[in-house]
Every structure is written in structure tokens, then in C-alpha cells.
């Protein structure tokens, strides 16, 4: 209760009649008027985020209101752990959907604390090389990826280079004049397909 005023016979007796929201009047000597005004409780919203952003930037919310937000990992990272508490109680299982990153609380009844941590995402690298050599032979990558493609020998001629990441063609990351592949950040599994034809020299004997 935010504001309470008690009058009796037109005289304010609040200080004498009210104790800890309890009203007691020992002797009634006039008309009593009780005026009470309550304000809606407001709670804090605290975000403790590591390499994660929250679509909802509100820092407070009224009692009974609904709360929704979406957590997104920084590019090149993936959500690793998310904990949501309300009024000190862990409500992660009912309020958070890991597949979408969405937070949904239908009725707020206490302070909200959102803790989320993202870690560098690790992706696979696959090589489909014919008469081509890659300077980088790692099959797992985090953050960024670089490699230089060279021909197996001088008798080879490069025909095609196709690079996909997460199923999307990103062959433009290949520099044909230098042979360098540079990807930053890596956001999906990488497949490098490069083909060169080899000229067979024939020795004619007369």
C-alpha cells in the first residue's frame, strides 16, 4: 500500500490509527473516512550476457505484465547456456525455447534475471580436391578460416572451385589470382570442391 489517509470527524488520525497496514481506532467520535491508494509493483530486469544480445532492452516491468524477448548469439558464436530466474526462482524450462532463443513470461511476479553465455561455434570443413592441394587441412574450424589452393604439379590446369558454407554458395571468398580462401566469420559447415585436370605428356618413340 503506497498511500493511506484516515480521518475521523474531519481530523487526520492516520499516525495514531495505522500501524503496518493495520487500522485500529479505540474510540470512534465522528465519521471515519479511509483513503487508500495502491501503486503497481515494478520489478527490475537484469541481463548478464556474454557474446549474446537481447532484443528486449527494458530494465523494469510492472507486476502482472507479460515479458517476451529473443536471445541471439554474436556472429560466429552459438548459445551455450541460458538461465532465467524470476523472483529468485529458476523458470528457464517454462520460459525459454532453446531452438528459437525466445523468452516468454505470461505474467511477471518478481524481478527477472537473464544469464546467457555464447561460445565460439565449431564447424566442419570438408575437402573434395582433384589434383589440387589445400594448405589448410583442418577438418574443424572456429571463428575464421583461411587456406591457399595450389595445383598438384605444373601439368595441372584449374577448372573449378566451389565453396559452400551452411549450404550456401560463397565461392566469391576464393581469390583466383592468389589461390587464397578467406572466410570470416565462419557461420556454418564448409565444403571446398576444387578440380584441376592433368595433362599427360606422351613420349613418341620413332
Please report the distance between the alpha carbons of the first and last residues.
112 Å
Order of helices and strands: EEHEEEEEEEEEHEEEEEEEEEEEE
Average pLDDT reading: 93
Uncertain segments are none
Rounded Rg: 34 Å
Would you report the number of β strands?
A: 23
Structure description:
The protein is mainly β and 206 residues long. Helices cover 4% and strands 56% of the residues. It is built from two helices and 23 strands. The strands form six sheets. A five-stranded mixed sheet has the order 8-6-14-10-11. It has a five-stranded mixed sheet with strand order 17-15-23-19-20, with no helix packed on it. It has a four-stranded antiparallel sheet with strand order 7-9-13-12. Strand 19 and strand 20 form a beta hairpin. The N and C termini lie far apart (112 Å). The mean pLDDT is 93.
In short:
The protein has helices spanning 14-17, 92-95, and strands at residues 3-8, 11-12, 18-19, 22-23, 32-37, 42-50, 52-54, 60-62, 67-73, 77-86, 89-90, 96-97, 102-105, 112-120, 122-130, 132-134, 140-142, 145-151, 156-165, 168-169, 174-175, 180-183, 190-198. With 206 residues, the protein is mainly beta. The radius of gyration is 34 Å and the shape is rod-shaped.
Amino acid at each position: 500500500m503506497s498511500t493511506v489517509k484516515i480521518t475521523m470527524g474531519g481530523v487526520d488520525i492516520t499516525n495514531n490509527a495505522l500501524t503496518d497496514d493495520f487500522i485500529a481506532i479505540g474510540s470512534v467520535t465522528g465519521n471515519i473516512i479511509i483513503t487508500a491508494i495502491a501503486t503497481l509493483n515494478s520489478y527490475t530486469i537484469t541481463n548478464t550476457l556474454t557474446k549474446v544480445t537481447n532484443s528486449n532492452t527494458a530494465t523494469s516491468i510492472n507486476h502482472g505484465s507479460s515479458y517476451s524477448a529473443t536471445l541471439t548469439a554474436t556472429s560466429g558464436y552459438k548459445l551455450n547456456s541460458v538461465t532465467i530466474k524470476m523472483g529468485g526462482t529458476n523458470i528457464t524450462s517454462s520460459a525459454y525455447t532453446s531452438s528459437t532463443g525466445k523468452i516468454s513470461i505470461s505474467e511477471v511476479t518478481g524481478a527477472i534475471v537473464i544469464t546467457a553465455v555464447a561460445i565460439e561455434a565449431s564447424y566442419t570443413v570438408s575437402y573434395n580436391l582433384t589434383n589440387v592441394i589445400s594448405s589448410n587441412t583442418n577438418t574443424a574450424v572456429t571463428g575464421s578460416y583461411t587456406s591457399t589452393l595450389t595445383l598438384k604439379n605444373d601439368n595441372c590446369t584449374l577448372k573449378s572451385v566451389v565453396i559452400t558454407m551452411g549450404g550456401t554458395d560463397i565461392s566469391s571468398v576464393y581469390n583466383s589470382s592468389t589461390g587464397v580462401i578467406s572466410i570470416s566469420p565462419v557461420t556454418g559447415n564448409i565444403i571446398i570442391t576444387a578440380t584441376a585436370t592433368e595433362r599427360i605428356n606422351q613420349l613418341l618413340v620413332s
